[in-house]
Amino acid sequence: MKEFSILIGGKAGDGIDRAGVVINNLLNPLGYYQYVYREYPSIIRGGHTFSIIRAASEKVSCHRNQVDIVIAMNPETIAVHAGRLRPGGALLYDSDTQGGPEPEVPPGVTVQPIPLAAILETEAAPPITRNSIMIGALARAIGLDWEAAADVLTRKMPKALQENLAVARRGYDAASPVFTAANLDRDGLPVLTGNEALGMGLIQGGLDTYIAYPMTPTSSILHFLAKAASEFGLKVVHPESEIGVILMALGASYTGAKAAVGTSGGGFCLMTEGFTFAAMAELPLVVVLGMRPGPSTGLPTYSSQTELGFALNAGQGEFARLVIAPGDAEESFYWAQIALNMAAKYRLPAILLTDKNGGEGAYSFDVDLSPVVDRFVPPARDWSKVFKIDSYEHDEFGITTEDPVITKQMQDKRLGKISPLSGDLDAFETVRVYGDPDATTALVCWGSNKGVCVEAAAAFGWRVVQPIVMAPFPAARFAKAMAGVERTMIVENNATGQLKGLLKMNDWPADDFVSKYDGRAFGLEELTAALTKAADRRPA
User: pTM for the whole thing?
Assistant: First the structure.
């Protein structure tokens, strides 16, 4: 079988994410490309959490709504997800927790009860090894031999190894084959989250200092860089608040450090005054802004594309800014380097606009790790001189002024960065085109919708256009990508069409708008159905 999807679900605290990582490692030796979609509630224990691991012979960057195997660690997973199963699939469930009659499943689906409590009792194993039982059962279900499964468990679960191996073997023996995962005869790729790739890109771009207050969905960047700090000579700091974060980062930037901060919409609200300080004082700074549904706290562990307008307009006054919206892990790695170095070169604030689906989703990572750009190194400062910065209007030496001539000169200087910055960005693929470049219908998307839009559009033979740089908007490059288009369809995870509005300002009105704003990502089948409905509304 060259493509399949596995859903594993349970309570928050059941180790679902960890189990997903082990499943990635089961599939990696077979050479599959993988994508992992995650949902979890904003609580430490309880609630419902699940991951969908999609494996395919071709590169994938989105999940399917239907799956081939559901691994249910609790009854709620069965109730919520059994209907996703395709004919020929299987439900592997904890029969000791479920109790009662066999669960109802769609026609053509097999049910495989795995008695987790009984296995733990037989092996005198701790409850934490429950996932290992199901990993063993999954290995049997997808046709792996026991030795391959045991090798992965040995490498990925070194704690209580013998107990994990013993219970996993019991799970393996309790399951039955469902299908055989093909051996694609190629090396497996590492599976990284978008946030991990972005953190690697910041390091590759010459990051000196990263400062953040934990806030989903960017918290994992803080954790990733903290672990890497000693190896790469980074300063990684967790202050008391988002206001403290940006002020500390501005201080680091003032000393010549390449600084970045991470936050979400609510945290960036508190940072906006400091963000404009960076523009006025010409202090380079990168803000990683991870989107999630609002207003206010909203859905803190779910996803949205609702901060594009905020990123483009945050702060009072007029000033140059760089706003970049990468679409997957590889683009996050690539563009993090560019953001850090363009901010340093032009001494301005930059925003890497991500979202929960792209930042916490995991991708097979296949990219050249050599630097994308030569690191911009600011000229060495003569510390015998005093360098002044000011949030007040000031002259070129940092001395406060209210003189109208100097005020205009300084404002022209700050806004004058836009044109050369745009020229530098032209060296990069600021707008990407997928599918049929001659198709007269274009699906326009941004951010983490890239993967699902590229796959869905292929079924219609459409062109896909993905702007990555949002400010300064690459109007000429976008016009070239849209040449010959007669019908424009825009896909976004927001209600108001924020990219649609940006394109309209640049003389590209949309014919159709497909949106989803419930905090969840488009599944492939779901978006395909929505596009079919939109396409039927008027002739192509």
Answer: 0.95
